[in-house]
């Protein structure tokens, strides 16, 4: 398993790789994780090998030692995560030398951001991205739309396997009054954001969205649950704008997180670009209405339940929140989508599908050998 980040780093890919590794080990499948040293030390005994990171560009680590490290591993499949990561590019380069099947796990296209950012991503995908996709023996996409995007850049032999959540980690019967009283929300309508406080999650948009409710005196509170490098900037923005309707909690316990979901009237996910946000899956497990950025994965699976907004549209997010507060989806629709998430996006099923992909690669009589 090759990944650009791993716990204690905090993020969606890190959580996914760590949980998948645990699940595979529990099934008797040996797992060795190869990653870098740029995010801190991994807990001992975790089956993780940290190779020196030589350079990090825009959060993307360069780890040249991966080439030799992969060659030294006695493995049946090399499973690399994130089609945008230099670590995956390195695995693609090493593919011709090590002759082992290469599975590329794509965690979502970058669909938002400024025109300059979108041009940068397109240029990457036409060059290094295409190079990596065409050298993989099998690719994983999160949804049908994501699979079509990968095909445009040379992706082939694509399997659709979504992200997963573990409902047992959350208490859907949690008491909403715990969060409302602790965070002084009271009886106001609650719009909840959960996630790492980084720009790609749309954190910088939250004060501006909240200000559109603050200025009209609407009885709505925005709660921001999570931690990250933008936390202090978020607090400064909230204070500078005189927001009386925003609560920034930092990281909370699992008990309080469950209470926050239970208390929410709307869950807001304004990510600029993302694969399949775990917060959306978790919110739907709680049968909560969701307002989210129009991401291909979410539209594929939840078009009938969520309200979607174009990336960065401040007025659009505010309008969608108001509409959802006024006319939430019927309880029957939320119950149906909760059942879908529980049945389709659970770890047992996702792990089964990944193991089947491994089996397909290792049982082929002749694996395609990229030139």
Give an overview of the whole structure.
The chain is α/β, with parallel strands linked by helices and about 375 residues long. It folds into two domains: about 10-165 and about 345-365, Rossmann fold (3-Layer(aba) Sandwich), CATH 3.40.50.2000; about 165-345, 3-Layer(aba) Sandwich (Rossmann fold), CATH 3.40.50. About 45% of the residues lie in helices and about 15% in strands. It has 14 helices and 14 strands. It has helices spanning about 10-25, 65-70, 85-100, 115-135, 145-150, 175-180, 205-215, 230-240, 255-265, 280-285, 295-300, 315-325, 330-345, 345-365, and strands at about 35, 50, 55, 60, 80, 100-105, 140, 160, 190-195, 220-225, 245-250, 265-270, 290-295, 305-310. The protein has a six-stranded parallel sheet, with helices on both faces. A four-stranded parallel sheet has the order 5-6-7-8, with helices on both faces. The chain is globular and about 65 Å long. Mean pLDDT is about 95; it is low at about 365-370.
Please give the radius of gyration in angstroms: 21 Å
Just name the CATH architecture of the largest domain: 3-Layer(aba) Sandwich
State the name of the first-level CATH class of the largest domain.
Answer: Alpha Beta
- Residue share in helix: 40-55%
Along the chain, the helix and strand elements come as HEEEEHEHEHEHEHEHEHEHEHEHEHHH
Detail the poorly predicted runs: 365-371
Structural class: alpha/beta
By CATH's scheme, which homologous superfamily of the largest domain applies? Glycogen Phosphorylase B
Question: How are strands sequenced across the largest beta sheet?
Answer: 11-10-9-12-13-14
What value does the average pLDDT take? Answer: 93
How many separate domains? 2
Please indicate the percent range of residues in DSSP E strands (runs of 2 or more).
5-15%
Oligomer: single chain
How many extended strands? 14
Distance between the termini: 23 Å
CATH topology of the largest domain, what is it called? Answer: Rossmann fold
- The global form is globular
Helical stretch tally: 14
Largest sheet: 6 strands, parallel
């Amino acid at each position: 398993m090759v990944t650009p980040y791993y716990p204690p780093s905090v993020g969606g890919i890190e959580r996914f790789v760590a949980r998948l590794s645990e699940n595979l080990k529990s099934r008797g499948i040996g797992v060795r994780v190869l990653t870098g040293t740029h995010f801190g030390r991994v807990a001992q005994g975790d089956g993780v090998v940290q190779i020196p990171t030589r350079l990090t560009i825009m959060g993307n680590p360069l780890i040249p030692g991966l080439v030799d490290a992969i060659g030294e591993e006695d493995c049946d499949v090399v499973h690399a995560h994130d089609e945008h990561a230099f670590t995956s590019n390195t695995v693609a380069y090493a593919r011709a030398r090590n002759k082992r099947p290469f599975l590329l796990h794509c965690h979502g296209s970058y669909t938002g951001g400024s025109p300059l950012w979108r041009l940068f991503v397109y240029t990457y995908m036409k060059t290094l991205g295409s190079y990596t996709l065409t050298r993989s023996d099998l690719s994983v996409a999160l949804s049908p739309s994501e699979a079509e995007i990968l095909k445009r850049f040379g992706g082939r032999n694509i399997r659709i396997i979504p992200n997963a959540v573990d409902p047992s980690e959350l208490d859907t019967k949690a008491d909403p009054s715990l969060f409302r009283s602790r965070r002084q929300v009271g009886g106001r309508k609650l719009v909840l954001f959960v996630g790492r406080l980084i720009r790609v999650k749309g954190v910088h948009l939250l004060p501006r969205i909240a200000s559109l409710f603050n200025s009209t005196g609407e009885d709505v509170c925005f709660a921001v649950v999570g931690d990250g490098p933008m936390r202090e900037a978020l607090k400064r923005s909230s204070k500078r704008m005189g927001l009386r309707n925003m609560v920034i909690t930092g990281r909370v316990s699992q008990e309080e997180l469950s209470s926050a979901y239970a208390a929410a009237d709307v869950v807001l996910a304004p990510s600029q670009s993302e694969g399949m946000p775990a917060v959306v899956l978790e919110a739907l497990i709680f049968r909560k209405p969701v307002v989210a950025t129009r991401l291909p994965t979410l539209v594929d699976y939840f078009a009938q339940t969520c309200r979607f907004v174009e990336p960065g549209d401040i007025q659009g997010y505010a309008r969608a929140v108001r509409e959802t507060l006024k006319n939430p989806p019927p309880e029957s629709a939320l119950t149906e989508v909760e059942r879908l998430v529980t049945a389709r996006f659970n770890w047992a099923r996702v792990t089964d599908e990944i193991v089947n992909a491994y089996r397909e690669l290792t049982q082929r009589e002749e694996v395609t050998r990229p030139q």
